Amino acid sequence: MGRRPRVDAALLAGRMLSRGALIGLGISSRRVSGPEFVAVLPGFHSPAAALPTVCEICGVLQRDVLPGAVLSHTTAAALLGIALPMSIDGGVALHLPAPAPAVATGGALAARFPAVGVRIHVRDDADRHRSAGGRVTVHRAGRRGRVRAGRLVASAPVVVLEELAALLGHADLVAAVDSVVGPGFAVPGITLEQIGAEVAAPARVRFRRRLLAAVADARPGVESPAETYMRLLVTAAGFPEPAVNVSVRESLSGRVRRIDGAYVEARIGIEYDGDVHRVVRDRWREDEARRDGLAADGWILRRLTGADLRDPDAFLTRLHRACVERGVPVPEIGSWRGRVLLPGASELSPRRW
Question: Which has the closest alpha carbon to 224: 170, 277, 183?
Fold first, then answer.
């Protein structure tokens, strides 16, 4: 009987199989234990050169390694499209190509990124005290709300916010709450009032005060973490709180334009410009046409970038001048200098969720 042909590990790229399944394919136990393969979860291996995605790992984890476990913390947040700092837990937020409809498709944890260095969190409600390997943190918790996202099961959104309250600073936690009550979230219809009521309920919630403070500073209708940081920055500096995502009909073209933040009666708009506004030509042209049209209607627009979030003095000075010109109450010029205006913002170059 001839020798079985050698199986090329590259043919298994992105897949995760049990040791027995790999041996059944003709891969020797010695090869499985060697440098060609890596143990991703206890008893499950993948080609070292082509790791599986977080979504694939989570599926095997819930189906075979810890049946009944619930994805939690940052893993659940990424799955549901809740805003996260980009670097947390090995960049799990990078596995989030689109926030919705995650619950309908199970698709927010992307199939396009291999899970290199990503930490996965699960709740083991059965309290079995089992390990799931070095890349998985297993939390012991009583039975709590959960949702199904395709073939995966995760903590319910408000439970995720409670879990994130232990990990995030204030500004990042506000951005997370904003994303849950924002347009297009994977689980529609959640309100700030609902979150506040659930968190304030008699059942014990760790970091309750921290989360309630974030809920108090959150607003519905916000479309990106940058807009959250912009609003928090401006109010912390002593300016009035701008209205969120104001729709304005341009008189020349008749088109409805959106402004990230605005003092509507004074016709002052505040906008965050991410890199996409600068490097994508069509987006840049559209933005310039929109700004020209709004300026023709008497709007003053003040723009800020990621650099302004890190060093806001020049932007706040420009905003101060516009507010003085239009009669909007303002703080004393420069009174914001030397103060921490965005406590708990771990990354000040945000991207849209």
Answer: 183
CA angle 252, 255, 256 (to 5 degrees): 125
Residue 219 CA, distance from chain mean position: 16
DSSP state of 141: -
**Digit-coded pLDDT (tens) for 183-193:** 989 889 999 99
For residue 93, give the DSSP letter.
Answer: G
Nearest-angstrom CA–CA distance, 272 and 315: 11
The owner of tokens 């239009």 is: 326
The two three-digit tokens of residue 41, written as one number: 């979860």
HSE of 297 in the Cβ direction (CA atoms, 13 Å)? Answer: 23
Residues in the chain: 353
Say which residue the tokens 């709450």 belong to: 177
Per-residue pLDDT reduced to its tens digit, 301-341: 999 988 899 899 999 999 999 999 999 999 999 999 988 89
Q: Which two tokens stand for residue 138?
A: 């297993």
pTM: 0.87
**Degrees to nearest 5, angle at CA 166 with 117 and 123:** 65
Q: 309 to each of 96, 274, 306, 349, how far by Cα in Å?
A: 23, 11, 5, 8
* Number of other residues whose CB lies within 10 A of the CB of residue 127: 12
Token pair for residue 189?
């219809």
| Cα dihedral 349/108/99/193 (nearest 10) | -100
- Token readout for 161 is 């916010």
Position 332, amino acid: E
Q: Which has the minimum average pLDDT: 109-118, 133-142, 174-183?
A: 109-118
